[in-house]
Amino acid sequence: MPDLRKMGKYLLYIVLVTCINQLVGQNTLVSNANIFEGEPSIALNPQNPQHLIAAWMGFQFGQKITIKSSVSMNGGTTWSMPIYQPHEAPGNASADVSLGFGPNGDAFMCYIDYDNVGFTQGKIVVRKSTDGGLTWGPAVEAVNIADCPGKLCLDRPWMVIDPSNGPQTTIYVTSMNANQPALVTPPYNPYVTVSIDGGQTFMNPRYLDTLNFLAGSSIPQPMPTPAIDGNGRFYALYPSYLVAQSPYPRQIIAFSDHSGIDLSHQVAYQGLNVGVSNSQFKRAGKLLADEAHTGHLAYCFLSEQNDQSDVYVMETSDAGLTWGPMQRVNQDPIGNNRVQDLVWADFNLSGDLVVTWRDRRNAPADGYSQPSEIYAAVKFYGNPAFTADYPLSSTVAAHDSVLEGSGNDFMSVVFHGDSCYAIWGDVRTGTLKIYLHKWNVHTQSGSVHEIPSTSNVHLYPNPVNDALQLNLINPESLRVEVFNELGQLLFVGSPAENGTFSVAQLPKGNYLLRCIGVGGSQVLRFTKAH
């Protein structure tokens, strides 16, 4: 006959864990709440191509969205436990992270931290890491909301780093007006700010547009996309529509050889075929500069000239004075009304170009709200055409309503030698998670890895006498609850900075430890020896 007392304890344990897991599910089922792990960025250390850093917008218990990051030292096969960046003020939210390495191996992270309800305060900040992304230094203000009254010039900051200079690394950050029509007064503008001392200080932000090359009052968010060539020339391309300048929409390229102090402008494209009209599509373009071949630039963008949305590239070999024809990159049948979006791209140091995007060619119907995959194609330097395109994701991911909001707006890719690393978020498991695919551009062979968005908590010793040790980078950020086997809450606390948590006051017996934070909750069982 079974021991009913032990069975009752076991059932209570199962009920407790089940209830906690249900609560965790409510926190992580992003299709039912504004909680997700998305908008990832990736950077590769040019001094060590096995060294990668990933960062993204993620859920953190008890807070609004934070920026999380993780490090791989073996080419993306395994990743460190994620850490998150604290907010600059209580109640703030973080968004729009971008990453980069300086020429001396230092890593930099740029993102927004702001009051996302009243927009009473906020900043674009840059953090520096001297240990490869394992820890990050203090936040340095690059742009303050007070720098641009009535403009909210904090949205979608992109960071690029000059690869040509030495210890005093030059960093450029571009941004645009936030999508808050009641708070932003036209005309609308793209912005740039610059640090010439390795991210210690930043100049006051300035407009990227100027007379005869104004962004205008018709495009509420004229997002600039920046790039740096191997000689340190800064470029930024932004959209413009102002009838007094031209009856057609234009793409303007600004450039500077003097750390953004002076800017020159020219028209990169004028016409109706760049961009798409459907605001659901993740439709931002990407400008790239080839470090190996001076003046070689590429602009990747969406166009609806033949379909709902296709991926195109234009290139220039004379620093933007003249541009070649538009080349369609995705190779599904023209006119099949399948949406391609979420474009990203990168050059390697040989001038080869990889383009990645979210693809719906295998979806059962047209429209944005369809299952999708991640695709890629490569154009080797000197070749006139792209290779045949091919899928990167190992599965077709179902559509989820979370993809229709402001999250999951971007993916990212880096290209080094023959290897590419693409990172994106999808909902193949029912939760928006971050995935990375590493592949060889010649063989197209590769593998998909999920980058953990939460830390798996482990404790030791077990059994324990006085103090448990938790294996976390930020243990003091946890709330820890201790339950007896009947599911009764005994006490609540937080681990010390070194990860220890005292249980000396407990009598001998078996207990449950619930750790809340670092992306969710986890329940562990431990035994008090005496």
Task: Explain this structure.
The chain is mainly beta and 530 residues long. It has a domain at 4-27 and 456-528: Immunoglobulin-like. Helix content is 5%, strand content 40%. It contains one helix and 35 strands. It has a four-stranded antiparallel sheet, with no helix packed on it. A four-stranded antiparallel sheet has the order 5-6-7-8, with no helix packed on it. Strands 9-10-11-12 form a four-stranded antiparallel sheet, with no helix packed on it. The longest helix is centred in the N-terminal third of the chain and has 25 residues, at 4-28. The model is unreliable at 1-34 (pLDDT under 50).
How do you describe this structure in short?
The chain is mainly beta and 530 residues long. The chain contains one helix and 35 strands.
